[in-house]
């Protein structure tokens, strides 16, 4: 697979939204249960990426967005400002083909020299062996699990907290 990773543009947002919408409607990977509107996606991009300190990178194959990784505020309180939450999503038909690794490699190459941030966190809905393996390959360490923290598709779900030093 020949994937390139680059900064997302406003034109990429609909493709990013389509990937995320799949996971919202069909999986327990995200605890969102409602699809974000196009306006919500545009506002999120403008506030967090264009105006804010966060990143949205996309993986491109054959001219199409096939995955993305985003950083965002870990928690809303000011003392968390040097901590990031990281989310990575890959088009469902391209999983286990190196897209997630390409995204993480590009992202962490940037974050290594970014002194604004100290730690990265990922919150992984369980079970999700593929995501756990991806995170561990890229230096994340399991820091704890919250049991039955979410409820989606008529089931309680656990979440694992993963951390990586930057």
Write the layout of secondary structure elements.
Layout: E1 4-7, H1 13-26, H2 38-50, E2 56-61, E3 64-73, E4 83-90, H3 99-111, E5 119-125, H4 129-137, E6 141-152, E7 155-165
Parallel strand pairs: 4-5
Antiparallel strand pairs: 1-2, 2-3, 3-4, 5-7, 6-7
In short:
It is built from four helices and seven strands, in the order βααβββαβαββ. By secondary structure, it is an alpha+beta fold. β6 and β7 form a beta hairpin.
What does it look like?
The protein is an alpha+beta fold and 166 residues long. The protein has a single domain, classed as 3-Layer(aba) Sandwich (Aminopeptidase). The protein contains 4 helices and 7 strands; from the N terminus they run βααβββαβαββ. The protein has helices at residues 13-26, 38-50, 99-111, 129-137; strands at residues 4-7, 56-61, 64-73, 83-90, 119-125, 141-152, 155-165. A 7-stranded mixed beta sheet has the order 1-2-3-4-5-7-6, sandwiched between helices. β4, α3 and β5 (119-125) form a beta-alpha-beta unit. The longest helix has 14 residues, at 13-26. The radius of gyration is 15 Å and the shape is globular.
Observed structural traits:
166 residues, alpha+beta, Aminopeptidase, seven-stranded mixed sheet, 4 helices, 7 strands, globular
Beta strand count: 7
In total, how many domains does the architecture comprise? 1
C-alpha geometry: globular
CATH topology: Aminopeptidase
Quickly give the CATH architecture. 3-Layer(aba) Sandwich
How many angstroms does the end-to-end distance come to? 28 Å
Report the uncertain regions.
none
Which class do the helix and strand fractions yield? alpha+beta
**Strand residues, percent:** 25-35%
Element order: H for helix, E for strand: EHHEEEHEHEE
